[in-house]
């Protein structure tokens, strides 16, 4: 009996040791996953040494290669990688991740990866499919990605493909109101509004001008710009954008991409008045400060009352304001940019994983000593780019190294909590739980198209690499050239 007890005890002990030592996925979500680029590295003498700035550039390249490894192995030619289940997800069936990543690979200097992606575009990318695509998403990701890659490389393959998809999106603009439908069947040449409503959003219909105007400029075919101009004129004459008392209503319904559109218009098409009115509307109606730390945030209006919540999406705004100030707008725009950038940083720094939630709720009165609360339904992180986008702009214009340090912290947290060993990165469900951040098994195409691109540009010392005086980024971070205004 004693021998049997000893044997059972030994077997149980070995079983427990085996579980503790097995490199399972659970350990990944406990923050013990491999990360080759730590902020503090140990030298031979055990002394800590700060990683040099050049290593941060290489860290982004390594992160891209790791993400690409997963995509190539398990989702090649498909829209999105599901890195944990080692399979793929489909949205339009047009290789969204690959197309979104084309100009990122070129900017990062990843020649081999770019060459294999180009071959797929040449031999496998065709748009004559019986499939509904969203006008906004396909414009900013596919059309924008192809146009940007053409400008960076000079390769007419990408312009030909851009013209093909651009022409197939035109049926969306054939509406009585001149406001385009949200969905287009690119094979049948038909279009319709979204299934759940009859309306298109202001954000979507006003955020696609850059791409269609550029397509007309390159092809000498005015139809793309003509249809989009009709839409834009209609939006400009909407009373809500002219009446300050009603601008609040517009802001409450509007996605932040509308303001990115206005910034693009300001930089390229000189629609300065609309941009200034939009920012003034934000200042007057939506800005508040938290307690106890007085963090400035942009709230939302609901039935005429301010809701003290801010989506991570809004964290593009510091960069937008800084870009405007760089182009001669009032200095107080830059002051606001500095304040909002601090808030977006805190949305990361105050979370246990170092990653921002999708939505943050801010305390206007100090009731628990915290500035930021996160509701359970809002605790996910989708690998979004908006904060690192603004960090890139802020560093370019101020040269303050803290913005690089903040971006480095974010990359470290991505590597610690979202990196999947077999390849790829995953969105997570709970930024408040470092022991189990609840991986969601999805890598959005914008992680390669935007997030890693902006991190690379943030860490690069080459200011002429996508100069902000020569290029404007579309909503999906695809750089397009700034041309002299002709209208």
TrEMBL record:
The keyword Hydrolase applies. Its EC number is 3.2.1.-. Keywords: Calcium, Disulfide bond, Glycosidase, Hydrolase, Metal-binding, Signal. Pathway: Protein modification; protein glycosylation. It catalyses: N(4)-(alpha-D-Man-(1->2)-alpha-D-Man-(1->2)-alpha-D-Man-(1->3)-[alpha-D-Man-(1->2)-alpha-D-Man-(1->3)-[alpha-D-Man-(1->2)-alpha-D-Man-(1->6)]-alpha-D-Man-(1->6)]-beta-D-Man-(1->4)-beta-D-GlcNAc-(1->4)-beta-D-GlcNAc)-L-asparaginyl-[protein] (N-glucan mannose isomer 9A1,2,3B1,2,3) + 4 H2O = N(4)-(alpha-D-Man-(1->3)-[alpha-D-Man-(1->3)-[alpha-D-Man-(1->6)]-alpha-D-Man-(1->6)]-beta-D-Man-(1->4)-beta-D-GlcNAc-(1->4)-beta-D-GlcNAc)-L-asparaginyl-[protein] (N-glucan mannose isomer 5A1,2) + 4 beta-D-mannose; N(4)-(alpha-D-Man-(1->2)-alpha-D-Man-(1->2)-alpha-D-Man-(1->3)-[alpha-D-Man-(1->3)-[alpha-D-Man-(1->2)-alpha-D-Man-(1->6)]-alpha-D-Man-(1->6)]-beta-D-Man-(1->4)-beta-D-GlcNAc-(1->4)-beta-D-GlcNAc)-L-asparaginyl-[protein] (N-glucan mannose isomer 8A1,2,3B1,3) + 3 H2O = N(4)-(alpha-D-Man-(1->3)-[alpha-D-Man-(1->3)-[alpha-D-Man-(1->6)]-alpha-D-Man-(1->6)]-beta-D-Man-(1->4)-beta-D-GlcNAc-(1->4)-beta-D-GlcNAc)-L-asparaginyl-[protein] (N-glucan mannose isomer 5A1,2) + 3 beta-D-mannose. Ca(2+) binds at residue 475. It comes from the Eukaryota. GO terms for biological process: carbohydrate metabolic process. One of its GO terms (molecular function) is calcium ion binding. Disulfide bonds join 315-344. GO terms for cellular component: endoplasmic reticulum; membrane. The active site is at residues 137, 255, 358, 386. Residues 1-21 form the signal peptide. InterPro entries: 6hp_glycosidase-like_sf, Glyco_hydro_47, Glycosyl_Hydrolase_47, Seven-hairpin_glycosidases. It is an enzyme of class 3 (hydrolase). The keyword Cytoplasm does not apply. Its cofactor is Ca(2+). Belongs to the glycosyl hydrolase 47 family. This is alpha-1,2-Mannosidase. It comes from Sinocyclocheilus rhinocerous.
């Amino acid at each position: 009996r004693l021998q049997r007890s000893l044997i059972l005890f030994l077997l149980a002990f070995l079983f427990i040791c085996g579980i503790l030592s097995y490199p399972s996925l659970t350990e990944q979500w406990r923050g013990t996953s491999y990360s080759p680029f730590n902020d503090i590295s140990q030298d031979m003498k055990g002394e800590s040494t700060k990683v040099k700035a050049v290593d941060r550039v290489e860290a982004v390249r390594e992160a891209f290669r790791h993400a690409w490894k997963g995509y190539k192995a398990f989702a090649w030619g498909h829209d999105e990688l599901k890195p944990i289940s080692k399979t793929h997800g489909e949205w339009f069936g047009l290789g969204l991740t690959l197309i979104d990543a084309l100009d990122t690979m070129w900017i990062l200097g990843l020649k081999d990866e770019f060459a294999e992606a180009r071959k797929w575009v040449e031999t496998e990318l065709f748009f004559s499919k019986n499939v509904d695509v969203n006008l906004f998403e396909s414009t900013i990701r596919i059309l924008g990605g192809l146009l940007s890659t053409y400008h960076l490389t000079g390769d007419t393959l990408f312009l030909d493909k851009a013209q093909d998809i651009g022409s197939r999106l035109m049926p969306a603009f054939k509406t009585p109101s001149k406001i385009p439908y949200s969905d287009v069947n690119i094979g049948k040449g038909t279009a319709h509004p979204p299934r759940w409503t009859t309306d298109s959003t202001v954000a979507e219909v006003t955020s696609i001008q850059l791409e269609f105007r550029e397509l007309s400029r390159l092809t000498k075919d005015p139809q793309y710009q003509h249809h989009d101009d009709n839409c834009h004129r209609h939006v400009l004459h909407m009373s809500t954008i002219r009446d300050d008392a009603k601008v609040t209503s517009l802001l409450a319904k509007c996605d932040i991409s509308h303001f990115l559109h206005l910034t693009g218009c300001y930089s390229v098409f000189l629609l300065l008045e609309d941009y200034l009115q939009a920012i003034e509307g934000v200042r007057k109606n939506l800005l508040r400060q938290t307690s106890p730390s007085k963090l400035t945030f942009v709230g939302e209006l609901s039935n005429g009352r301010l809701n003290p919540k801010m989506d991570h999406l809004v964290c593009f705004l510091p960069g937008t304001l800084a870009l405007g100030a760089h182009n001669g707008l009032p200095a107080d725009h830059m002051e606001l940019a500095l304040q909002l950038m601090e808030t977006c940083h805190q949305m990361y720094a105050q979370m246990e994983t170092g990653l921002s939630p999708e939505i943050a709720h801010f305390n206007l009165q100090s009731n628990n000593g915290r500035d930021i609360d996160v509701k359970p339904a809002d605790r996910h992180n989708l690998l979004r780019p908006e904060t690192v986008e603004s960090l890139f702009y802020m560093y370019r214009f101020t040269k303050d190294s803290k913005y690089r340090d903040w971006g480095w912290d974010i990359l470290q947290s991505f590597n610690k909590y979202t990196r999947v060993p077999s390849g790829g990165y995953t969105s997570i469900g709970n930024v408040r739980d470092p022991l189990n951040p609840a991986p969601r098994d999805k890598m959005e195409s914008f992680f390669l198209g935007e997030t890693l691109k902006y991190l690379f540009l943030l860490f690069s010392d080459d200011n002429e690499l996508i100069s902000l005086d020569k290029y404007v980024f579309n909503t999906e971070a695809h750089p397009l050239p700034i041309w002299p205004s002709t209208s």
